[in-house]
TrEMBL record:
PROSITE patterns: 2FE2S_FER_2. This is (2Fe-2S)-binding protein. The lineage of its organism: Bacteria, Pseudomonadati, Pseudomonadota, Alphaproteobacteria, Acetobacterales. The keyword Iron-sulfur applies. InterPro entries: 2Fe-2S-bd, 2Fe-2S-bd_dom_sf, 2Fe-2S_ferredoxin-like_sf, 2Fe-2S_ferredoxin-type, Beta-grasp_dom_sf, Diverse_Oxidoreductases. The keyword Metal-binding applies. Residues 1-74 form the 2Fe-2S ferredoxin-type domain. Pfam families: Fer2, Fer2_2. It comes from Sediminicoccus rosea. Keywords: 2Fe-2S, Iron, Iron-sulfur, Metal-binding.
Length: 151
């Protein structure tokens, strides 16, 4: 059994598959999405010890003893993370397929860069594709959340 921390709780998994498949199929966390399966789209990203990483190619075995946080672990409906609130307020997204990965990457980024400029944010999000073309709203939402988190 592979033991690790998932959204703050101790969990165990038999392994033998990617972290993304375990999260979606066995832990029923549908935030992280399967896009390309090849680290090329960003849809599957989760936080591993606070760093945003693709879960599609990461074996469950690689997270043994470590802390994994998915979109679901960032906030709740009653107490959403400022990013989750800002994405709703800016209506940042169309289909939403890319947003879970983008939000966890933005959360990691803002922890390191609480006062980002748009250029730094664009670089940080480069690995995240949005087929709906919502990039401008997404950037607005993240900058809004950064302002709120500083206030
Ligand atoms: S599904 Fe993992 S990067 Fe595309
Ligand atoms: S909102 Fe549809 S892929 Fe980004």
């Amino acid at each position: 059994m592979i033991r690790f921390t998932l959204n703050g709780a101790a969990v165990a998994h038999p392994g033998g598959m990617s972290l993304l498949h375990a999260l979606r199929g066995d832990f029923l966390l549908n935030g992280p999405r399967f896009g390309c399966g090849a680290e090329a789209c960003g849809a599957c990203h989760v936080l591993l010890e606070g760093r945003s990483v693709p879960a599609c190619t990461l074996p469950v075995e690689a997270v043994a003893g470590r802390a994994v946080t998915t979109l679901e672990g960032l906030g709740t409906r009653a107490a959403p993370h400022p990013l989750q609130r800002a994405f709703l307020e800016e209506q940042a997204g169309q289909c939403g397929f890319c947003l879970s990965g983008i939000i966890v990457t933005a959360a990691a980024f803002l922890r390191e860069n609480p006062t980002p400029d748009e250029e730094a944010l664009r670089v940080a999000l480069e690995g995240h594709l949005c087929r709906c073309g919502s990039h401008n709203r997404i950037l607005r939402a993240i900058l809004r959340a950064a302002r709120e988190m500083r206030a």
